[in-house]
Amino acid sequence: MIKALAFDVFGTVVDWRGAVIREGELLAKEKGLRVDWPKFADAWRAGYHPAMDRVRKGKLPWTHIDQLHRMILNDLLKPFGLGGLSEEEIQHLNHAWHRLTPWPDSVPGLNRLRGRYVLATLSNGNVSLLVDMAKNAGLPWDCVLSAELFGHYKPDPEVYQGAARLLGLPPGELMMVAAHPRDLEAAQRAGLKTAYVPRPLEYGLDGRQETGPHAVFDVTAGDFLDLAVKLGA
Questions:
Q1: What is the CATH classification number for the domain harbouring 77?
Q2: What is the mean pLDDT of residues 34-53?
Q3: pLDDT at 91 exceeding the cut of 70
Q4: Do 139 and 149 share a domain, yes or no?
Q5: Do both 210 and 170 map to the same domain?
Q6: Final residue of a structural domain among 55, 79, 99
Q7: What pLDDT score was predicted for residue 208?
Q8: Do 6 and 163 contact (CB within 8 A), yes or no?
Q9: Interacting residues of 26 by C-beta distance below 8 A, sequence separation 6+
Q10: Do 108 and 207 reside in the same domain of the chain?
Q11: With 70 as the cut, is the pLDDT of residue 212 above it?
């Protein structure tokens, strides 16, 4: 019954934390900076959901992720000793999210899955960010779908239902793939099938994980290659 797979991207397909840390280390080498880059990456990401919630609750007009990332970054510059960066350097750092690197199994697993299913992103990242990331990382999407297209952020149901509509499918023929149970639970409520692919290293070796009771998902896989096997690809 499944005809297409829609993927969460940050953390599920790409290692955002490792990539942001590497971008910071490159900047530090160029500028002679001393920054706790893991702490910086975690602080930047920590502002992500609160910023989106301000949009979802109407406290901000529609604001795409590049703009939200920049708003969060602006508040981190001085506390992390980055106040001396030029506007060009700040903008380059903000676009680190366009250059995130995939988990080792992501590209081979996606290529196997693409032989049987339509593959799409379904991310809160804006379209230009997702396109740049795909080009940079070699991610073989058939279609780039973003919350930006619907004027809503996940976990609003409009995002999941809108993805099925744009793909010309009833929700039950679209499977959401994510490392985050809350994302999948929202997809289930919208009528989508679900595949859980945990990424235990998303927040580093000692990082936090989503805890608490979770729904039963249609498929649970160790990585994308395992997902391909379980979905017959």
A1: 1.10.150.240
A2: 95
A3: yes
A4: yes
A5: yes
A6: 99
A7: 62
A8: yes
A9: none
A10: yes
A11: no
The three-state secondary structure class of 178 is: strand
Q: Residue 215 carries which DSSP code? A: P
Q: Can you tell me the distance from the alpha carbon of 39 to that of 60, in angstroms, rounded to the nearest whole number?
A: 27
Closest CA to 99 of 129, 123, 126, 125: 129
Nearest CA-CA partner of 221 in 209, 203, 233: 233
Domain count, the chain: 2
- Give the structural domain span for 77: 16-99
Residues 190 and 171: beta-carbon distance below 8 Å: yes
Torsion-angle region of residue 171: left (phi > 0), alpha (psi -120 to 50) or beta? alpha
Amino acid at 58: G
Phi, psi of 69 (to 5 degrees): -60, -40
Q: Which residues pair with 10 in a beta bridge?
A: 14
What is the spatial order of strands in the sheet that 174-178 belongs to?
Answer: 143-146, 118-123, 4-7, 174-178, 193-196, 219-220
pTM: 0.94
Share of the chain above pLDDT 70, in %: 96
- Site of tokens 């790409």: 14
Where residue 109 sits, what CATH number does that domain have? 3.40.50.1000
Distance CA 162, CA 160 (A): 5
